[in-house]
Write a structure and sequence with these properties.
Strand content: 15-25%
Number of helices: 9
GO cellular component, one term: mitochondrion
Subcellular location: Cytoplasm, Cytosol; Endoplasmic reticulum; Golgi apparatus; Mitochondrion
Distance between the termini: 50 Å
Helix content: 25-40%
Order of helices and strands: EHEEHEHEHHEHHEEHEH
Function: Exerts an anti-apoptotic effect in the immune system and is involved in responses to infections.
CATH architecture of the largest domain: 3-Layer(aba) Sandwich
Organism: Astyanax mexicanus (Blind cave fish)
Structural class: alpha/beta
Number of strands: 9
CATH class of the largest domain: Alpha Beta
Protein name: GTPase IMAP family member 8
Length: about 270
């Protein structure tokens, strides 16, 4: 328990293809409309976006991410947004929810976890589960197991996630399904060791290390006749900044872009 008897906070990152209902599901979990949802380009999530609300006696952070296809982002930008999603919920997410709309059968469901693993440079499957939307489309007598067996890609995804899944109906505003989801996540977390409650990725460790220990943005005067914005992990540059009496500002950004400027300066490395 955390302060004032509340349960420990929970960090959730939602992943999925376009029009699976990620943003609507994010709103359902939080119990309020914090994320823009709907079908169409104007409602397409292009950045990792997080919101936190008190849900069932605990703080729950939900991070919505760009669609893994048809979002207008290439793999490099998608990877950057996944990094940002992880940093949003430092020290890391407790669970990745792969959102799949029932009735949307596709072989590509089997590829999404592989793509995420590749971008994260590690396996997220033990921290993952599948969250089905469009639960209201299930008819009396429909068996979800049979639907899963008919979709080989979906079957592979669920098996990779250890058989963990939950069905959601975003039209249902009752809190019961959200409580059941959180209880299911809590049950899974009880199986983990205390030091393994959150997922941590090599890409976030790398980025946070750069930001907190090495990545300092400096303004150097009189370089090529104008001020130049510089980033470096070099102690030599830090010494120059100290001699010039310039302050340090730590921030995160696209390192590849800034390093193009670094390479133009001679004698600092």
């Amino acid at each position: 328990m955390s302060k004032e008897g509340m349960k420990e906070p929970l960090n959730l990152v939602l992943l999925g293809y376009k029009n699976m209902g990620k943003s609507a599901t994010s709103n359902t979990i939080l119990g309020c409309d914090k994320f823009i949802s709907g079908i169409g380009k104007s409602n397409t999530t292009r950045n990792a976006v997080d919101h936190t609300e008190e849900v069932d006696g605990r703080e729950v952070m939900v991070v919505d991410t760009p669609a893994m296809s048809d979002s207008g982002l290439n793999d490099h930008l998608l990877k950057e947004e996944l990094k940002n999603a992880l940093i949003c919920c430092d020290p890391g997410p407790h669970v990745f929810l792969f959102v799949v709309a029932l009735g949307n059968m596709s072989e590509k469901h089997g590829e999404i976890l592989k793509r995420v693993n590749k971008m994260m440079r590690s396996d997220v499957s033990s921290f993952s589960m599948v969250l089905f939307t469009n639960g209201d489309s299930l008819k009396p007598g429909d068996k979800l197991d049979n639907i899963i067996k008919m979709d080989q890609g979906l079957k592979e995804l669920i098996e990779s996630c250890g058989g963990r899944y939950k069905v959601f109906n975003n039209k249902d505003k009752e809190k019961k399904q959200v409580k059941e989801l959180l209880a299911q996540i809590d049950d899974e977390m009880k199986k983990r060791s205390p030091e393994n409650l959150h997922y941590t990725s090599p890409i976030t460790k790398e980025k946070i290390t750069w930001v907190t220990k090495y990545c300092t943005l400096h303004t150097l005067a009189l370089v090529g006749g104008s001020a130049v914005m510089m980033l470096s992990k070099s102690s030599a540059l830090a010494n120059v900044v100290e001699q010039l009496g310039l302050g340090d500002t730590v921030m995160a950004f696209d390192f590849d872009y800034v390093m193009q400027t670094v390479e133009s300066v001679v004698g600092l490395f």
